[in-house]
Amino acid sequence: MEKYERRENFEHYVYRNNCSYSLTANIDVTQLVEKIIQGSDVEKKRKYTNNKSC
């Protein structure tokens, strides 16, 4: 490594500059939200039915 011609560049990017990347994407979560809401409604009905029988 001591004889590497681009040692300074290598050290800069590996040790001093934390390289990273990011990605932004549009994701349609409509169906996911609908399923969550449906599951929530089912759970509410189940709790109401269980409490009613007590």
Concise overview:
This protein has 54 residues and is an all-alpha fold. It has helices spanning 7-16, 30-52.
What does this structure look like?
This protein has two helices and no strands. By secondary structure, it is mainly α. The model has no long low-confidence stretch (mean pLDDT about 80). The chain has helices at about 5-15, 30-50. The chain has a domain at about 25-54. The chain is rod-shaped, with a radius of gyration of 28 Å.
Helix content percent band: 55-70%
Catalogue the unreliable spans: none
Approximate shape: rod-shaped
| Average residue pLDDT | 82
Strand content: under 5%
Structural class: mainly alpha
Q: How many helices does DSSP assign?
A: 2
Order of helices and strands: HH
Distance between the termini: 76 Å
Biggest β-sheet strands, sense, barrel: none
Query: How many E-type strands?
Result: 0
Based on CA atoms alone, the radius of gyration comes out at 28 Å
